[in-house]
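Hi V.,

You were right to ask for the full record rather than a summary. Here it is.
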Amino acid sequence: MVQTIPYDLQQVICEMAIGPNGTDSFAFKAMRVSKAWAHFVCSILYRNYIIGDYLQFVGFVKTVSSENCLLPYGIYIHSVDLTSVNRYGINMRAHKLIKHCPNLVSVTLGHPTSVKPSTILMMARHCKKLHSLQIGGLESHPFMLETNFSSLNSLKHVDINTTPLTSSSLNSLPLTLERIRLIKLESINDQDFITFIKGREETLKSLAIIRCLRFKGNIVHLLETLEHLEQLELVGENINDKTIEGLFDLPFTLKSLRLFDTQITEKTISALAAGRLKVHYLDISNNSLLTDEIIKPLLLKRHL
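Predicted structure:
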């Protein structure tokens, strides 16, 4: 009587033989052993598939979307990064790829992206398991982007870079967000930011506002209710002493605070040194109105 190795043990053996990156030549031999082993291999090879160049991308999409595949390769894909192929005009293939990958957890479109709004809309409707989304500037879309993200209930991390997003689209992002980076969103003003923060006080842990030129209000109005905030990043010449006045009086503890390329002066440094805000890691760099002589005493006083 032939003894069969238990299913879970087969999986362990297969994973060990393939290696952590699925690059071992054994991977393709293992796929021929049985359908179960082919499943093990695909779950490793395609989980975080790295797209190196355009030809590889074309072949990858063709394989995933083929109707005559032995296995439904699309279901194994958990993350996709299109940054390396953006410049080629990839919208049609990206649309097809996303359509056949229902288990996507992370999508990076890169910046700028040649993906069109229709593909982003489709992703918002179909990628129900998406945790992380990065959207770059849309080369072919000079108008305001109206997108409803409310169906992405699993979304936790969002990076939006130079995308002409409307305030209603921004506010449609789920209330469960834990981390958001907003980069060069020139259409979003102070009130839009305040409205966006409302309802996200219990979940938001990381906030980055980077070169959003229309943000000129006081940051305290955004942060005063964010008791669970752990990371804060403010970048751009629109950030000055007035913008962050009162920030260091908040009774919060931040794991990290980054103030980069701002117009803050010694006044802000003095407020930070005397304030109640606790910071574990502080990055104050490339600020034209500050010198090392001003910053060093602060670092010594706060033991940073």
